[in-house]
Design a protein that fits this description.
Blueprint: H1 2-19, E1 28-29, H2 50-67, H3 74-89, H4 94-113, E2 122-136, E3 139-146, E4 164-168, E5 174-175, E6 182-190, E7 194-200, E8 203-209, E9 211-220
Parallel strand pairs: 1-2, 4-9
Antiparallel strand pairs: 2-3, 2-6, 3-4, 3-5, 6-9, 7-8
Helix pairs in contact: 2-3
Length: 233
């Protein structure tokens, strides 16, 4: 009797296994930080306060004018001198920071543009806001998925690895009732770099993109839109 029950249980488990959707456990739920590779480097500018960064920009502007042989006003000379005195008092190595500026800028660019190779051809679901590019009637068939409201239009574009170019089959496309509608997108993600021209009221702008997605489903975001926030830097 026990062996018979054991056999029945085995059959039921096998049946459940084979009847389960093949990709049920393979769809990965992503957030925006998951799209950024881990690139560690020492960025001394991140340790400065907003005021210290402002003082540093004042000094940089004055030195740049000097290097280019431009005339510098007495007011700027005074402002830069005061900024140097304040930073020196704070123990900030001004010349050391300027010497590292080019290297830090290059590493920041690399971190902003690099993608996560393991995400190529991955089945994923992720939230974001729709920035429509193409329509089929009133349905959006192509759009940029961005991490916060206003990205690319009302604020500078996010880094390339924080923008996903999404294409939706016309049969699966849905109407977008407003700009920057919060949605949840399911589909296949690709690490594909590209550039898209975004036409705005004051002209066009080329947007660098790090990922693309062939969407199989676009749904309204079920959680509160406030939970979709600009990712950490």
């Amino acid at each position: 009797m026990q062996d018979k029950m054991s056999n029945i249980l085995t059959v039921l488990l096998l049946t459940a296994f084979f009847l389960a959707p093949a990709n049920a456990s393979t769809v990965r739920e992503l957030n925006w930080d998951d799209l950024k590779p881990v690139i560690e480097f020492d960025d001394p500018f991140e340790k400065l306060t907003p005021d210290q960064l402002s003082y540093l920009r004042t000094i940089a502007r004055k030195r740049q004018l000097q290097d280019n042989g431009k005339q510098i006003s007495k007011a700027m000379i005074k402002e830069a001198g005061e900024a140097e005195a304040i930073l020196a008092k704070d123990g900030v190595d001004i010349d050391g920071l300027f010497a590292k500026r080019a290297k830090v800028s290059e590493m920041r660019r690399k971190r902003a543009e690099s993608v996560v190779p393991d995400l190529n051809n991955a089945s994923v679901v992720m939230p974001g806001f729709i920035l429509p590019l193409e329509y089929a009637g009133t349905k959006v068939t192509e759009f940029l998925l961005v991490p916060w409201v206003g990205a690319c239009i009302h604020s500078p574009p996010p880094p390339a690895n924080q923008i996903v170019h999404v294409v939706v089959d016309k049969k699966m496309a849905r109407e977008s009732k407003r700009l920057f509608e919060p949605v949840s997108v399911t589909g296949t993600l690709f690490t594909k770099r590209m550039s898209k021209s975004l036409f705005l009221k004051d002209g066009s702008s080329d947007i660098n993109i790090g990922y693309s997605m062939q969407a199989s489903m676009v749904e309204p975001y079920k959680k509160k839109p406030e939970q979709l926030k600009e990712p950490s830097t």
